[in-house]
Every structure is written in structure tokens, then in C-alpha cells.
Design brief:
With about 240 residues, the protein is an alpha+beta fold. The protein has four helices and ten strands; from the N terminus they run H-E-E-E-E-E-H-E-E-E-H-E-E-H. Keywords: Membrane, Transmembrane, Transmembrane helix.
């Protein structure tokens, strides 16, 4: 379970960071472009039809004509294709173009300039949050395990049962948890101890066995069920 969550955490975090960097670069490029660009009035002269892959839909791209500072007629395509189309034929739009390369132009509105930067930044933020959450869970769990291995009080507990933890789901699968019963190291009263999530059902190997549980004497709910004799090293 730990290795899977760690890999998921790293992959999602790296994807998120890559998207955030891409979004930041797009925002920066737009800022640099706007600083040197010239405004010009444009008119939508056509709507180019684009058919998606496997005929999964048709979108429309606005074709815009404008006149640059040298009096030359220029034509550009909107950076966004949409259905329904963003514009109609004859619509007037504000165009930003590079005076050194007038064909390099964008429609000067929020969607035209910030859709892609916003999309990459938004996706990057979501992926980074998901990946970071997985990593925080793993780091916190590992710190707890290390602390309990050093300072936890060992308790011999009887194996009770294994159950499927439906509160956790990864790729449509649910992990198992082992439940054991043993004394509270402080009071001696019987307590139930629950293992971390695992991806195999060890019922057959655990029937009739004692399990070692490392317990925080002050907080019995903070414990670690050692399944290494059955499952090997837990990570």
C-alpha cells in the first residue's frame, strides 16, 4: 500500500509541477507578447470547422481579418475552437499582433489570452494537491511507524479477522485491514487494534496466530500492527 501511494504521490506531484511550470511560462509569454504587441480592430470573416478524432464532435475556429500598422491586410485564426462557436461572422474583435510578425496575433479577450495558461495552471494545482496529499499521508505514517518502533510498547494480540476497507479506493480496488485484540498497555483492558491498509488477504496465514502490536502507552489508538512475519517488510 505504501509503495503504491508513494508512487501515486510522486507521479501526481511531478505532473502537477510540470503543468504549473507550463502554465507559468504561458502567462509569462503572454505578458511579454502584450508588452510589444499593437492593437488593431478585427472582423470575424469565417468559422473554420474542425472535426474531432473518431468523429467525436465538431468545433469552430474564428478566422479574423485585420489591418496592420503598414496598411497590410492580415488574417489570423483564434487560438480556441469551440462548439457553439465563440463568435459569429461579422463580429468585431480587438486583435493584438506582433509588429515584427503581424501573422502572430491573438484575439484580445480573457478566453483568447488566458484559457491555455489558466487550464495548465489549474490542472497543475489539482494534480500537485492530490500528489502532495498522498506524500504527506505517507510521510506522516512512516514517522508514526518509526516512532512506535523506537518508543512503542509491544503488546501480544490475538488475530480476530480481516475486512475489506471500502472507505479507501484506488483504481477501483479496496485494501484489506487486519483486526487483532490485545491488552491496553496502561490499563490491561482488552483493545482492538487495526493494521494499516494492505493489498492481500492474509486470513489463512494469520488464523490462530499472535500478532505483535506496538502501542503508544498514552494513546492506544496510535499503534502499529506488525505483519512483517507474514507479509515481509511493510513500506
Amino acid at each position: 500500500m505504501g509503495k503504491i501511494m508513494t508512487w501515486i504521490g510522486y507521479v501526481f506531484t511531478l505532473i502537477g509541477l510540470a503543468f504549473l511550470v507550463t502554465g507559468g511560462w504561458l502567462f509569462y509569454s503572454d505578458h511579454q507578447f502584450a508588452a510589444r504587441a499593437i492593437h488593431a480592430p478585427g472582423v470575424v470573416t469565417d468559422l473554420a470547422r474542425k472535426r474531432g478524432h473518431d468523429d467525436d464532435g465538431t468545433t469552430f475556429t474564428a478566422i479574423v481579418q485585420f489591418t496592420d500598422a503598414n496598411g497590410q491586410s492580415q488574417e489570423m485564426a483564434d487560438s480556441i475552437s469551440a462548439n457553439p462557436p465563440r463568435f459569429s461572422k461579422g463580429d468585431k474583435v480587438d486583435v493584438l499582433y506582433d509588429p515584427q510578425a503581424p501573422s502572430s496575433a491573438v484575439i484580445n479577450d480573457g478566453w483568447g489570452r488566458y484559457f491555455l495558461p489558466g487550464l495548465f495552471s489549474g490542472l497543475g494545482f489539482v494534480f500537485a494537491i492530490i500528489g502532495g496529499t498522498f506524500l504527506v499521508i505517507i510521510i506522516t505514517r512512516n514517522r508514526k511507524r518509526i516512532w512506535l518502533q523506537r518508543f512503542g510498547r509491544p503488546v501480544d494480540a490475538d488475530f480476530l479477522h480481516v475486512y475489506l476497507d471500502r472507505s479507501v479506493e484506488i483504481n477501483g480496488a479496496h485494501p484489506f485491514r487486519v483486526v487483532a485484540q490485545g491488552p491496553d498497555p496502561q490499563t490491561g483492558q482488552l483493545q482492538r487494534y487495526q493494521s494499516e491498509p494492505i493489498w492481500v488477504d492474509p486470513t489463512a496465514q494469520l488464523e490462530g496466530r499472535k500478532l505483535k502490536v506496538l502501542v503508544d502507552p498514552q494513546k492506544p489508538a496510535r499503534h502499529f500492527v506488525d505483519l512483517s512475519p507474514v507479509l515481509g517488510k511493510q513500506t
